[in-house]
Write a structure and sequence with these properties.
The complex is a heterodimer of chains A (170) and B (171). Chain A is of the alpha/beta class. Chain A is 39% helix and 19% strand. In chain A, strand 4 and strand 5 form a beta hairpin. In chain A, helix 1 packs parallel to helix 6. The longest helix of chain A has 17 residues. In chain A, 55% of the residues are buried. In chain B, helix 1 packs parallel to helix 6. Chain B is built from 6 helices and 5 strands. In chain B, helix 2 links the parallel strand 1 and strand 2. Classes of the chains: A alpha/beta (170), B alpha/beta (171). At the A-B interface, helix 2, strand 2, helix 3 and helix 6 of A face helix 2, strand 2, helix 3 and helix 6 of B. Strand 2 of chain A pairs antiparallel with strand 2 of chain B, so a sheet runs across the interface.
Amino acid sequence: MSIGTSSGTGPSDEELGDAVRRLAVALQATDGQLAVAESCTGGLLGHLITDVSEASDHFLGGVICYSNAVKERLLGVPHALIDEPGPVSTEVATAMLDGLLDRFPAATVAISVTGLAGPQGSGDGKPVGLTYVGVAQRGGEPRVQRFVFEHERDGNKRAAALAALEMAAE
Amino acid sequence: MQVASPPTDQQLEVAARRLGAALRQRRWRLASAESCTGGLVGHVVTGVAGSSDYYAGGVISYDNRAKEVQLGVPAELIEAHGAVSVQVAAAMATGVRDRFGVDLGLSVTGVAGPGGGSDQKPVGLVYVAAARRGRPAAVHREQWSFDRDGNKRASALSVLELATREVEDEG
């Protein structure tokens, strides 16, 4: 799935706030406990989730794995996957989910985000805006979706966060 | 220091750029441990293009267990002093520094509100810390009186400024 809008700023605060509240309701309804692994969003997802004051009922925390070394050391992403197919890939998004569920034993739902927010590309031909978002329920099959956002850096981060919030609320 | 209104996006961005420039100059790497800010500090730090040169990442330790398991904060410390305390802020900063193997760890723990306050730990009470390699953490106590978002923003600005001072301190 690809979102091809090119407005500079990405989703509005209102859209993000609505998505956060929908996810909070979904988690409360199922007694879910959420953890997040964020690469390109850099903490934005956790920040948004903790904008609602009841967040501590359903949010455990997460890992901001901005560097590849942190993806490996903190989340156990295999070095071989970082080499090929690379950190921005379905495989790494999936491995981040696995690592997160290991690191947060109380988590029932995990979200991972890895992408190229820009403006620089990865140097291996992957386009700026390419983002993989993963969601897994403990014991279930992980789902990973591919997006190519066409905003500025901040807009790409916001669009990735919105996609993650919406996927996790499904 | 209490000011009339919480920091704007622009003020946060300026502070993140200043910290980034200071880290670059010393060729230091940074990691963050965030409780009440929930990831806002990481978000602001990574708002600067090229921040992957100096920002390794961090832990969002919203839950107390995450402070223990992900950051190595001793459970006894949390029991004795509470999660919002000088001691826990310092242990979060040194914990994230050592676990991520970076030169500087920063941390934030506090009561963002509107709920969760008590007489001893009122809403808006926040401790921010920054720990350089080989040194104990520098910790600041803040008492904000903004709304939840404002308290988070003010805390983020405070820790960015504290971290910058630690990097710029030549001693």
